[in-house]
From TrEMBL:
Catalytic reaction annotation: Exonucleolytic cleavage that removes extra residues from the 3'-terminus of tRNA to produce 5'-mononucleotides
Documented EC number(s): 3.1.13.5
Gene3D superfamilies: HRDC domain, Ribonuclease H-like superfamily/Ribonuclease H
Name under which the protein is recorded: Ribonuclease D
Molecular functions (GO terms): 3'-5' exonuclease activity; nucleic acid binding; nucleotide binding; ribonuclease D activity
Enzyme class: hydrolase
Protein family: Belongs to the RNase D family.
GO biological process: one example: tRNA 3'-end processing
Functional note: Exonuclease involved in the 3' processing of various precursor tRNAs. Initiates hydrolysis at the 3'-terminus of an RNA molecule and releases 5'-mononucleotides.
Name of encoding gene: rnd
């Protein structure tokens, strides 16, 4: 397949002018994210059905023409499994493709697993087997090889015909509006930034800690996230989560005690004194100065039975509607709903299962299931 390798601002501006006004644009990115907090952009692939370009970001200083293209209201942007790509565009170009349609989401509405891969769909619908041998390549290494470029180009070359087929199938299923809502929701999830003071609630074992210990975990988790963002390091390369939890649990007073809690030598050398200072800040806090206890939804006495009942009914409903059960209600979404029902964790807005296209399908079903479990009248699958 023919493609243009763009390595300068002039070439990028010319390409964007060439495809401006087209109705569709296939997008993809290649990036590296191993030890870093933010993804590092290695390549941008663009295809309008006629012109295919691979944009080398290492030679670009003016992204304005592409930013305008990505946000053009009359051009639909197609991605596949674009959640991470959204984050890449946001962090590297300070914009998000809009309007955007994800072909993985479209496929889920016509019965494919929510995690269905691009190569599998291309083979199923287009009869082409893609070469995925470059999927783990170093996209920041230069020069790019011919094989790398062919691999990257294929990811957008086959995206538009696949999108056309899946869009038609979704329309036939009467799910076009729901699919559009789901794509928009995916974008909102990805661009939402974690609040540093709240991330401690997601630590495994947070619900086991007492007041001062929990305050310590809150401060440690906030410090770690801020360090990760500031230094562009994956959070567990600052200090591992289980090590922070141990520090909060035992509240050590010396570097030797940190070593006894299995913190690595690097963690102690780089952060030991700061970690101990945070511990010391929390040691004498009054209960009123500490965050309230974290209630994990999975610790609720009715959690296991309720979760299984909801999952069984969601699966049955998805078979009726003929789309992926993971799309209708994921584990995260079911837990989010039960958190709301049992007031385990404060959350803003309605649970995803009670909003948008899911609400008319699930609102009564979920309420009835919870009521039956709590009243002891439900029949659930065997444990």
């Amino acid at each position: 397949m023919n493609h243009q390798l763009i390595t300068s601002d002039t070439q990028l501006a010319a390409f964007c002018e060439q495809v401006a006004g087209k109705p569709f644009l296939a997008l993809d990115t290649e990036f590296i994210r191993i030890r870093t907090y933010y993804p590092h952009l290695g390549l941008v692939q663009l295809y309008d059905g006629e012109h295919l370009a691979l944009v080398d970001p290492l030679g670009i200083t003016d992204w304005a023409p592409l930013q305008q293209l990505l946000t053009a209201p009359d051009m639909v942007k197609y991605l596949h499994a674009g959640s991470e790509d959204i984050e890449v565009f946001l962090n590297s170009l300070n914009c998000v493709p809009h309007p955007m349609v994800d072909t993985q989401v479209l496929a889920a509405f016509v019965g494919h697993p929510l995690s269905c891969g691009f190569a599998s769909l291309v083979e199923t619908y287009l009869g082409t087997t893609l070469d995925k041998s470059e999927s783990r390549t170093d996209w920041l290494a230069r020069p790019l090889t011919a094989r790398q470029c062919e691999y990257a180009a294929a990811d957008v070359y086959y995206l538009l015909p696949l999108a056309e087929i899946l869009t038609e199938k979704v329309q036939e299923a009467g799910c076009t509006q729901a699919a559009q809502e789901e794509c928009a929701l995916m974008v909102q999830r990805r661009i939402k930034q974690a609040e540093p003071s709240e991330v401690y609630k997601e630590f495994s074992g947070a619900g086991l800690l007492r007041s001062q210990q929990l305050a310590c975990l809150q401060k440690l988790a906030q410090w770690r996230l801020e360090q990760a963002r500031e230094r562009d390091m994956a959070v567990n390369f600052v200090v591992r989560e289980e090590h922070l939890w141990k520090v909060a649990r035992y509240m050590p007073t010396s570097l030797g005690e940190l070593d006894g809690l299995d913190l690595t030598g690097q963690e102690i050398r780089c952060h030991g004194k700061r970690v101990l200072a945070i511990v010391d800040e929390c040691r004498n806090l009054s209960d009123s100065e500490c965050p309230p206890a974290v209630e994990n939804v999975s610790d609720h006495p009715l959690y296991r039975k309720t979760f299984k009942a909801i999952k069984a009914r969601v699966t049955a409903l998805s078979e009726t509607e003929q789309f992926s059960p993971e799309l209708l209600a994921s584990r995260r979404q079911m837990n989010q709903y039960l958190n709301k029902v049992w007031n385990c964790k404060a959350q803003q807005g309605e649970p995803e299962l009670l909003s948008g296209w899911r609400k008319p399908l699930l609102e009564d079903l979920l309420a009835e299931t919870v009521d039956e479990i709590q009243s002891g009248t439900a029949r659930t699958p065997d444990a």
